[in-house]
Amino acid sequence: MVVSTVGARFEQALDKLKSTGVRMTPQRHAILSYLLDTISHPTADEIYRALEGRFPSMSVATVYNNLKVFIESGLVRELTYGDSSSRFDADMSEHYHAQCENCGKIVDFNYPKLHDVEHIAASETGFVVRGHRLEVYGLCRECASTIKH
Ligand SMILES: [Zn+2]
Ligand SMILES: [Zn+2]
Taxonomically, which superkingdom (predicted)? Predict the structure, then answer.
């Protein structure tokens, strides 16, 4: 079930890449599959460590450059966190994130898109609003159960 969904999403991603003229290389294939297969919102470094055994000539910079290609093609979104490393998400559906302040884990949750926020922001600031990010933060289930209060 989950595998076939990932398979279908991978096929869609391949079509989209083809239509934008991006060449699919074995490394890109591996990075995209890895991202579609995980729910962990990994950093470039985590992706590199997961795949370096299969691609000895790959570097973190290569991973990052390939991620940029996917971002420009609209297949992956980058979640930036100030000066700490970005995390990457291949789930382009509308969803929000909860982040654990202790272990850094990011978990997806669904909530109806906050259209009002965008409309009010646009009318108060005069911005042409293209989107927004909303994150809740706190302690994940595991951390909440191990940390003494
Ligand atoms: Zn945690
Ligand atoms: Zn996500």
Answer: Bacteria
